[in-house]
Structure formats: structure tokens, C-alpha cells
Specification:
- By secondary structure, the chain is α+β, with helices and mostly antiparallel strands.
- The protein has a single domain, classed as Beta Polymerase, domain 2 (2-Layer Sandwich), CATH 3.30.460.
- It is 41% helix and 27% strand.
- The longest helix has 17 residues.
- The radius of gyration is 13 Å and the shape is globular.
- It starts with a helix and ends with a helix.
């Protein structure tokens, strides 16, 4: 959970909007967390995902499987237990991952990081 929370913090620091961490551990064995953020434009989406890659590599993770980097309305990084989704606003509304995974618990990532400091 700590890595997912650090990713969320990084997304917010890089001005990602509506950053959400969903805990999927009780729902699916495939992954543990989604981190979802909205970028204002393609350049910002690339900056967010590029910085997530730097952060996770510095924490000892292997490079992720990445989808959508070239299309840029939805970039997905699969880190194994954590899947990062960075959308443009229209795409986030269209795909509505929070609605599709409505049974997932929302993690108060700011609180988790505050308690771990």
C-alpha cells in the first residue's frame, strides 16, 4: 500500500487532479491497488507517468508494462500489484473506473503517508 500512496502523492505534486487510490485486495487476486489521476494535457500525463517510473525504479521495481503512452488519452502502467491510470478528463469520465470498481475501498493515501512518517 505504501508504494501506491507514494505514487498518489507524486501525481498530486505534479498537479494531477482527483488522485484516488483504490484498494482491490478484497475484490480480485490479480492486483492490489489502482492509482487513478487526471492530467490536464498530454505533456502533463507524460510527466506524471515518467516520474512514477523514476520513483518506482528507485524503490527497486522493474520497469512496468505500459499502454497508451502514444495515444495519450489514457496511460496505464502495470507495476504488478499496483496499476497506475492517468487520464485526460474526458477519458476518465468515459471509462469511469471508480464506478466500475465501486466495491473497492478508497484509501486515504494522505493519512497513510502521514502515519508512516
Amino acid at each position: 500500500m505504501e508504494d501506491a500512496c507514494h505514487i498518489a502523492k507524486l501525481c498530486e505534486e505534479y498537479r494531477g487532479k482527483d488522485v484516488v487510490v483504490l484498494d482491490l485486495t478484497a475484490i480480485t487476486p490479480i492486483m492490489d491497488f489502482f492509482v487513478i489521476a487526471t492530467g490536464a494535457n498530454i505533456r502533463q500525463m507524460h510527466a506524471l507517468t515518467d516520474e512514477v517510473r523514476v520513483l518506482m525504479k528507485s524503490r527497486g521495481n522493474k520497469p512496468p508494462a505500459t499502454e497508451g503512452y502514444e495515444q495519450s488519452s489514457w496511460i496505464l502502467q502495470d507495476w504488478g500489484d499496483i496499476v497506475v491510470h492517468v487520464f485526460l478528463a474526458d477519458a476518465r469520465e468515459l471509462y469511469d473506473l471508480e464506478g466500475l470498481w465501486a466495491d473497492a475501498k478508497r484509501v486515504d493515501w494522505k493519512d497513510v503517508l502521514a502515519k508512516s512518517s
